[in-house]
Amino acid sequence: MPLRSEIAEQPAVIAALVDRAGEAERLGARLASVAHVTFAARGSSDNAATFGKYVFESVAGIITSSAAPSLVTRYGAPPVYRGGAVIGISQSGAAPDVRAVVAAARRVSALTIAITNEERSALAKAARHTYLLRCGRERAVAATKTFTASCVALALLASAAARARRRAPLSFDGLVDAVAEAAARDRDAARLARRIGAARTLIVLGRGYAYAIALEAALKIKELARVWAEPYSSADFAHGPRTLLERGTPVLVVSSRGALAAEARAVVTAVRRRGASVYAITDDERLASRADDAILLEAKVAEPLAPIALVVAAQLVAANVALRHGRDPERPAGLSKVTRTL
Predict the structure, then answer these.
(1) How far lies 281's CA from each of 1, 46, 95, 118, 165, in Å?
(2) pLDDT band of 111, cuts 50, 70, 90
(3) Is 140 left (phi over 0), alpha (psi -120 to 50) or beta?
(4) Are residues 284 and 304 in the same domain?
(5) Each residue of 307-327: pLDDT tens digit?
(6) What is the reported pTM?
(7) β-strand 85-90 against 36-41: which pairing, if any?
(8) Structure confidence at residue 142 as a pLDDT band (50, 70, 90)
């Protein structure tokens, strides 16, 4: 069962990345002098880029943006990347549109970095620098270890750039333990999946550093269970989409201790008041106590990195929701391991 085994491999994959932090230090020193960073990615890698936006802007103080690949591949009108950096993220390195953005940036002498699991990939060849995830082969169709590894790689790069800019770097203490704890919570994930039941729609909420995890959790539930999981920033959800709520609508909240904890608790209370069934993946005991059911992680880790553990628990929830719907999470319908868009 590749999916289950690859979820279980994530603590070791992340530990190895953190042990090789010297690679990030060298690239981070180069990033410290750029005016802006543009991320080019698709799918799960794009969700990792959203996480990267939060850590680069908050930790390193570098403004980021998301590339619009069609400007390069379809319109022939690439923006001016000169003076900045472009980071292409692709587990396989085979995404043609991501490669095209990186190649366009390199032609105008922008700093280009490929974050990938494939050393000989087209993306690695297009970029000036390659940051290899070294996850080992990922056989499951749904990305798990390459997603978390991409998030950790981005956090390491942002932390290294911060250090070079004389800003406070991130502490990675406790991260591996937190991910290991999350990877061992399959029984809790199965319980949460039973509570969610056979619902055909699901709302997933997160904000701040956890917003990217809401996006990724929803994507995994769509991929594996064929359930229409709709992700929102909890702030955006208040601007209209909350009218979607009906009695019994399942809502999954991903949130951690820290700056947004009180707001997340208030969201859980408000959503339940409207009759929704609220479930949580969190390390905040007070938030967990307000939900109808929750996976409560106990390991302590810095707030910007806590979502990396939360998403591992969310991967298990997605796999178990798939089983509740009679789907095989190892064989998601209509998907292949590598998706090529141009």
Answers:
(1) 24, 22, 31, 31, 34
(2) very high
(3) beta
(4) yes
(5) 999 999 999 999 999 999 999
(6) 0.95
(7) parallel
(8) confident
Same domain assignment for residues 54 and 158: yes
Which of left, alpha, beta for 230 (phi over 0: left; psi -120 to 50: alpha)? beta
Rounded to 5°, the CA angle 295-186-326 comes to: 110
What is the SS3 assignment for 287?
helix
Q: What crossing angle do the helices spanning 306-324 and 145-164 adopt, rounded to 10°?
A: 170
**Tokens at 277, concatenated:** 């069934």
- Residue 271: give the domain boundaries: 176-324
Helix (H) or strand (E) holding 66: strand 63-66
Clarify whether residues 95 and 195 are in a common domain: no
Q: Which two tokens stand for residue 311?
A: 């998403």
% pLDDT > 90, the chain: 89
Q: How far is CA 31 from CA 51, 56, 155, 158, 163, in A?
A: 17, 10, 13, 8, 11
Instruction: Say which residue the tokens 């333990």 belong to.
Output: 177
